[in-house]
Design brief:
Blueprint (H helix, E strand, L loop, with lengths): L2 H6 L27 H9 L13 H14 L3 E5 L2 H10 L7 E5 L4 H10 L6 E5 L4 H7 L4 E6 L12 H10 L3 E5 L4 H4 L9 E5 L13 E5 L1 H15 L5 H33 L19
Helix pairs in contact: 3-10
The chain binds pyridoxal-5'-phosphate (PLP).
Length: about 290
Amino acid sequence: MDLSYIINELGEDRSSYFNAVAPPIIQASNFSFDTVEAFGKAFEDEMGGYLYSRGLNPTVDILRKKLAALDGAEDCLVFNNGAAAIFAGVLANVKAGDHLVSVAKPYTWAQKMFDVILPRFGVTTTYVDGTTLQSWQEATRSNTTFFYLESPNSWNFVLQPIKEVAAFARSRGITTLIDNSYCTPLYQNVMKMGVDLAMQTATKYIGGHSDTLGGVLSGSHAQMKKIFDSEYLNVGSGIQPFNAWLLLRGLRTMPIRLKRVFESTEKVLNGLRNHPAVESFIFPFDKKLSAV
Ligand SMILES: Cc1ncc(COP(=O)(O)O)c(C=O)c1O
């Protein structure tokens, strides 16, 4: 699907709101029904329509459609921040007695979840260097159900062989989640690489104006429904309509902003490349690393 179409048109039903180019903020907690029967039916499947904005909301839905399309995923849920997206994606897919393998030094609040919260419920984590498939394979146990990737890692920019790790995980029935915040789907389509759940903090590149937080989790309809019916509704960690609207606005300019970030980064790197005080640098798009 064309990128410009996704960010400027997909999901927007302009004729239903006076042909406004900027989508409306549907700042409503709840929605009305013509009959008691229809109201009762809406409770049976909150993902099937608008009932209460802790579940679905029309402004948020426009954003969901665009972000799912950017990821090339069947569906997507948008959270109040990136940490909440990680929390829901992991929690929905582990149970007491499970073992999880994570890349070493993941984002702070992912690591806190693995080290502090999950052990309270009998879920253990092994951290791996993650740069080789072998490191993931060697850490896998009979009770391993989840792989957590972050490539490039946002602390040290080290890469993981995403396709190979995802294929191995799939062959063992292990669910994979990757924090794709650094590259975004514009520069790295992790769904095509076989990952089950693609996560991003929308607070950074999607928002782009330092005025809202947000978190994205994309995957299959089945995964999104499972997470929506449980963690999303239960914790109430979905994004609010106004913040979703800010992200819709941010999305419009995301490709040109990222292009500028890329160009600026190249300039900084060219300055560092031959600087006597620099021993080495890791840049994910460096040609020497592009085979990884
Ligand atoms: C790589 C990465 N993942 C996740 C997050 C969490 O996102 P948020 O701050 O929107 O909760 C951050 C935030 O800095 C991040 O850098």
